[in-house]
Amino acid sequence: MSKVPALIWCGMLAATSAAAQTKSMMPDVAVSREQVRFLVCDYEGSKLQRTTEVAPRPSAVGGAFWSCERRGSSDSFQVTFRLVKGAAKAAGVAVAFDFARWTPKNYVIVPAAIYNGNRLHALGDGYMPAYPRSMFFNPNLPVTMSNNPRLELKPGKSSLIELQTGNASIPAVAYYSPNQKKGFILLCEQKSRFGNNGLRIEENAVQDRISFIVSAPGVRERAAEFGGFRPSGDVGADWKAGDELTLKFKSYSFPAKGIPDLLNKLLSVRKALTGPNQPRNLVPMSKMAETIAPRFKKRWQEAPVGGYYLPENSPDFQLGWVSGFMQTPMLALGDPLERAHVERQLDFVVAKLQGKSGLFYGGITAKGLIRADRSLDGRPFVLTRKNADALVMFFKFFQILIAQGHRNEIKPEWEQSARRLAAAFESMWRKRGEFGQYLDPETGEIAVFNSTSGALFPAGLAMAGKYFNNPEYLRVAKESANFYYRRDVVGRGFTGGHCADISQDPDSESSFGFLESLMALCWATGDSGWLRKARDEAALAASWVLSYDYIFPPQSDIARLGGHMAGAVWASAQNKHAAPGICTSSGDYLFKLFRATGDRRYAELLRDIQHAQVEATDMPGHPTCHTGFGASMERIQPTDAEGKGAVGNFIQTQNAWCELDGLMMAIEIPGIYLRTDSGDLFVFDHVIAKVVKHAARGITLQLSNPTDYDAKVSVFAESRGQAKHPLGYTNYLRWPKVAVPAKSTAVVTIWTDGSVH
After folding, report:
1. CA 755 to CA 753: how far, in whole Å?
2. d(Cα 147, Cα 78) in Å, to the nearest integer?
3. Tens digit of pLDDT for each residue in 254-303?
4. Count of C-beta atoms within a 10 Å radius of residue 17
């Protein structure tokens, strides 16, 4: 029997021991104001031995002489280090940004890696560590994550975070000070000729000073893994006389009223130093749908326990999260056989997985044994998020059937099952004022409290309120959404605990899930006030998305394909990798937010995500995971968390949720969005479009298809006035399509009513 790890204070495994063993890059004397220092670093293996501050004039460091020159403005500058005389072995350079008047109440972020400094309680080493008994049925449970890089939670201890730029979705370190009402963002480059740059954060034991340090090469004593650490294997570089290296920076210091101000600023500047990414037009969205859909048809399984689409690479069923019970595109296809399969899967889920309380279990084997997400004394619990996924999917299935003219096929027992689930959460909210992270499907009790695992429940309850005309469901949807917004977005600066294979770590899936909830409330209530919260949440969600075309090792799979991976979505603070898509969603709520606000940043974010998914998909002449055309898997790996050899390489397997994401995006996102009154357009599909004529009756577009595949481009055209009305969940079924052959151009007129001629 494995030993269950005890709950530990932040730093007992990582920050404290690392700070005690590793030399510091902080200044030797206390500073009273912000300052920037230029350092030469000497290493022995991966251990820092000493740092020496250098100036423009040559400075002696060991037996060599170094100079350093800063050029540019105060907020956009470059620093050039030069070895003037002599030689240096196992050395590096660094720029340190020191901050005084510091407090541990400040919010620190390294996008996709560190949120609120990761200043959280932590569990022992390992991927998905077991929960100790003390975490169950404890309403006062603090947020508890896996063993990740972090700042100290306990007072009187120094902190050290060692990362490389590959750990971050944006090469950046930032903070918000509630005392000073100030935000600060530092942007750097990904790499130098030595490889990825280092991102180092040091805080002193008094916790009144901190340093953000960018180094080249990026030498860490320990590399972060999936919930643990290992010796990094990093080393310094050898330098000879005349060698130079330049580090470029942009910094922003600005007034901020709260964490959302910092996140929104980060969204605005995240590409300011790396520059705009260059998404490649590889495969039209229609071709993606044509290629992936047959793969899902083959995923239909007739198991002893019932019929369902396989969500994993096993014969067993898992609800929600990684694609179980989420195949809305298969219903949207209009294929009678797939409609029958979706309806049989509804029968299966309702009959086999719903507990006495109305909550569902998280999974079941092909032979009918219930699968637990967590358990205590043999008592099986389910991840809250899976029930939220199920509630939302019930109503998405219902709405598609209604839109297709099949309302009569919606069975009363399906509606009753969805009503019982919604009622269970209405009751839970009245009793507890939260939805917890793990639940008991039999009793309806919260087994593990806290986290944002219920991020999607406001969406599900809003949809239930509209469908059943039940104002109580809508009331709880609004109350719970406001709760998550205040506590997690504004108060903590992260959402977490949404994935079934992590602890309560910060994660992207809860961020995107909560954004869907906020946009669902815009739709259900008609209240545009939810858009402000949605914009803040979109900024948080964007921090998990690779902002630039990462430069992978030249021998890696992605580099050999010339991959442009801006748009890859990081999973969680524990699972240090990016993936091709949002697990599991098309991200259409980003389109809805763009449509409602006119802010193109949300459209660009969604376009990047869609294009990164295509980059990771196996197609003729574009081999990725080698498991068939249309296949993709969940690793776009910029970090060395799985070993240095894993960076940029695909694992030769497939993940149903990645493929479902590709199918969802291909169907639920318009290829082209056009405003008929202004002529403004945005292209999501892998084509090029421009307005060639704008007349009173319509707009004529020229569409060019540079890909090797014929395209059927969906066009969603409307006026500014029409865009003021919230978009529903089945509009994509009615979008007209324009045929554009491969390597060809087509001219088409879109009339003011949105029709195409």
Report:
1. 6
2. 35
3. 999 999 999 999 999 999 999 999 999 999 999 999 999 999 999 999 99
4. 14
Residues 6+ apart with CB under 8 A from 494: 115, 116, 488, 506, 511, 540
Under 8 Å CB-to-CB from 286, ≥6 apart: which residues?
A: 666, 671, 710, 711, 712, 713, 714, 737
Of the candidates 245, 123, 117, the residue with the CA atom closest to the CA atom of residue 176: 117
Q: State the pTM of this model.
A: 0.97
Q: How many CB atoms lie within 10 A of CB 728?
A: 11
Residues 6+ apart with CB under 8 A from 450: 141, 142, 143, 144, 434, 436, 437, 497, 504
| pLDDT tens profile 232-255 | 999 999 999 999 999 999 999 999
The SS3 call for residue 750 is strand
CB environment 288-307: b (16+ within 10 A), e (fewer): bbbbbbebbeebbbebebbe
Task: Give the count of beta carbons closer than 10 Å to the beta carbon of residue 421.
Answer: 24
Residue 519, pLDDT above cutoff 80: yes
Given a contact cutoff of 8 angstroms between Cβ atoms, the answer to whether 744 and 705 are in contact is: yes
Give phi and psi for 176, each to the nearest 5: -125, 130
Q: How far apart are CA 518 and CA 541, in angstroms?
A: 13
pLDDT above 80: residue 371: yes
Per-residue tokens: 647: 């960076």
Distance, in Å, from the CA atom of 117 to the CA atom of 278, rounded to the nearest integer, reads 32
Q: Residues 684, 672: contact at Cβ < 8 Å?
A: yes
| Among the listed residues 507, 494, 618, the one whose alpha carbon sits nearest the alpha carbon of residue 569 | 507
Rounded to 5 degrees, φ, ψ at 390 are -60, -45
Please list, in sequence order, all residues whose beta carbon lies within 8 angstroms of the beta carbon of residue 363, skipping any fewer than 6 positions away.
Answer: 316, 317, 318, 319, 324, 353, 370, 371, 373
Pick the more confident residue, 141 or 4: 141
